[in-house]
Amino acid sequence: MTKRRLLGLVANRQGVSKLGIAAGVALLLVIGWWVFFSPYSPLRHEMAGEHPFKEITVAGVTKYYCTMHPWIIQDKPGNCPLCGMQLVPLEEGKGAPAPASTVEGLAVVQVPQERLQLLGVRTAPVEERDLVKTIRTVGRVEWDERRVSYVQTKFEGWVDKVFVDYTVKYVKKGQPLLSIYSPDLVSAQEEFLIALEAKKRLGESGYPDVAKGGADLLESARRRLLLWDITEAQVDELARTRQVKRSLVLHAPLSGYVTEKMVFPNQMVKPDMKLYIVADLSTVWIQADLYESEVGIIKPGHAASVTLPYEPGVKLEGRVAYVYPYLEKETRTVKVRFEFSNKEGKLKPLMFANVELHVPLGKQLAVPEEAVIDTGIRKVVFVQTGPGQFEPREIHGGQRVEPYVAVPHGLKAGEQVVTSAQFLIDSESRFKAAVAAGAPAEHKH
Question: CB within 10 Å: which end of the chain, N or C, has fewer?
Answer without folding.
Answer: N
